[in-house]
Write a structure and sequence with these properties.
Layout: H1 5-15, H2 24-40, H3 42-49, E1 57-58, H4 63-69, E2 104-105, E3 112-116, E4 125-128, E5 134-139, E6 142-148, E7 153-161, E8 169-178, E9 185-194, E10 200-202, E11 214-219, E12 226-232, E13 235-241, E14 249-254, E15 272-276, E16 281-286, E17 291-296, E18 301-304, E19 317-322, E20 329-335, E21 348-353, E22 359-361, E23 372-379, E24 385-393, E25 396-405, E26 410-419, E27 422-425, E28 430-431, E29 437-445, E30 453-460, E31 471-473, E32 479-481, E33 486-489, E34 492-495
Antiparallel strand pairs: 1-15, 2-6, 3-4, 4-5, 5-6, 7-8, 8-9, 9-10, 11-12, 12-13, 13-14, 15-16, 16-17, 17-18, 19-20, 20-21, 21-22, 23-24, 24-25, 25-26, 27-29, 28-29, 29-30, 30-31, 32-33, 33-34
Helix pairs in contact: 1-3
Keywords: Membrane, Transmembrane, Transmembrane helix
Transmembrane segments: 47-67
């Protein structure tokens, strides 16, 4: 089955995985086992590393304490978390003024690039020298040294740009080394604050989950604050990041065990799901209580959405929570943990009304088959939402795309087409500048097991129907609207009519 570009890049990185001498036998054995397990869980690792794209998984917040301590909720649906588990966010230290830029001419021989922004929104890269002991931010021929490890190798990195402060980033990275015990690796994660002038400060006291851990950093809608969460097989922890401070302040949860066993590659372990519901509130799902909760990060209060219990079948979990801008509803995507590009027939969308606590399954087609996958695709400027559906019917598969009014609970069908192949919709759609057309990638796989391909589907959001016939290609490397009337697919520009 074809993997997307991110998955392929991950496998390529893992195939270059090296460990320090002088234990070549252990090195090769560890590399072989790591590669074998990484191939089996490549798509899950993609989910761990990237959020958000996306995304949006999270750690277990204070609700775990409520479940174990039976803390009551009052008549206003609010509860005060235990004081012993709450530390108010505050300014710890200000970044000192710098007289001149710390960016210097790049003087690194063949840097090993660990991360760069493939969307083109930033030209910065994160890389190491050939020893993997020094980490650099690299941008337009200049570099800043971020960190130097004493006795560990740096293997993973990612940066998160400040939405409201150009040139400013949080930089996450992981350093690791093999331990004496076979198949055990010491892994330490770091979070740095990189200012536009190149000055650097490390965020102190971030959780240390060890190897095979999940993480997520997500900005609030106004871009003024972010939460950082991390989780391993034994615990979770979440805290707010203050752009004027250099210390992680835990809000809820605790990572109290560092995992070193590399052979125990877990299944999807980010069981909790969390997102910003507003600039000051979080919405989260507790899989153990099967309930949704809200948390106000300013006054540190919490409440449950009574009656909105979501009981999941074995093997399913909440993949993502989406709260559209200026809407009092949330969409909950539920499905199997496999993150490959295939039709499962079990991907569902639920809508949670944040005012009435009503939780209901979204349905905008008339098909009767129980095998279907649903997708939240995007949001129009007028507030309408774009939803997708793939139904297996009479031996074939039907792709439906609808505009959905969350306030009136009214769908408007925009596109519907039958295919002979099974389908998987990539949920990152693109709009024309006038927002009258959208384009999406659809992965297609023949039912006889033949080679898969991709379709580019263009939908007219005003009058419905297709703008052009779906374009079938072996692989879509990239697609962009040139203007309101043309789209570029790979290297070919196609008129939309």
């Amino acid at each position: 089955m074809k993997q997307d570009m991110a998955e392929k890049k991950l496998i390529q990185e893992l195939q270059q995985f090296t460990l320090p001498e002088p234990e070549p036998a252990f090195k090769e054995a560890l590399k072989e086992k790591f590669l074998k397990k990484a191939e089996q869980t490549a798509t899950r690792r993609k989910w761990f590393r990237r959020v958000g794209v996306s995304g949006t998984l999270a750690a277990s917040l204070l609700i775990g304490l409520w479940a174990t301590q039976n803390l009551p909720f009052n008549g206003n649906n609010q509860a005060k978390p235990p004081e012993s588990n709450i530390q108010q966010t505050q300014t710890i230290s200000q970044m000192p003024p710098v007289a001149e830029s710390h960016w210097k001419a790049l003087n690194i021989s063949n840097p090993e690039i660990l991360y760069q922004d493939y969307t083109g929104q930033s030209t910065m890269q994160i890389g190491t020298d050939q020893t993997r002991r020094k980490l650099y931010a690299i941008n337009e021929g200049k570099a800043v040294e971020l960190f130097e490890s004493a006795d560990m190798d740096i293997y993973s990195a990612e940066f998160y740009a400040f939405p409201t402060d150009p040139g400013k980033y949080y930089v996450w990275f992981m350093e690791q080394k093999p331990l004496d015990q076979p198949d055990h690796v010491k892994a330490v994660q770091h979070l740095m604050l990189l200012e536009a002038d190149g000055s650097v400060a490390e965020i102190k006291h971030i959780p240390q989950p060890g190897i095979n851990a999940g993480r997520n950093l997500q900005w609030s809608p106004n871009g003024e604050k972010a939460f950082f969460v991390t989780e391993n097989s034994q615990g979770w922890e979440v805290g707010l990041l203050d752009s004027s401070a250099t210390e992680f302040k835990t809000l809820y949860g605790e990572i109290n065990q560092e995992i070193t066993d590399m052979s125990a590659v877990p299944d999807q372990q980010m069981r909790w799901a969390i997102t910003w519901a507003s600039d000051s509130t979080l919405l989260l799902y507790n899989p153990f209580a099967q309930s949704f909760y809200g948390v106000n990060v300013d006054d540190v209060t919490a409440w449950d959405y009574k009656g909105a219990e979501l009981s999941l079948e074995p093997g399913s979990f909440v993949k993502k929570i989406i709260v559209p801008k200026d809407q009092q509803v949330a969409f909950i995507r539920v499905g199997a943990p496999q993150m490959d590009v295939s039709f499962t027939g079990k991907e569902r969308l639920y809508k949670l009304n944040l005012q009435t606590n009503e939780l209901k399954l979204v349905n905008f087609t008339s098909f009767k088959s129980p095998e279907y996958d649903q997708y939240y695709l995007g949001e129009m400027e007028d507030g309408a939402l774009i939803l997708g559906d793939v139904h297996k019917e009479k031996g074939g598969f039907t792709l439906s795309v609808a505009a959905y009014d969350p306030a009136g609970d009214q769908p408007t069908m925009l596109f519907q087409k039958e295919f002979t192949e099974s389908l998987f919709v990539n949920d990152q759609i693109k709009f024309t500048p006038d927002q009258k057309r959208i384009a999406m990638r659809v992965f297609a796989f023949p039912q006889d097991g033949g080679a898969g391909a991709e379709y580019l589907v263009v939908v007219n959001t005003e009058s419905g129907g297709k703008s052009i016939d779906p374009i079938k290609v072996e692989f879509i490397n990239d697609f962009q609207f040139v203007d309101d009337h043309r789209i570029k697919v790979n290297d070919e520009t196609i008129p939309l009519g």
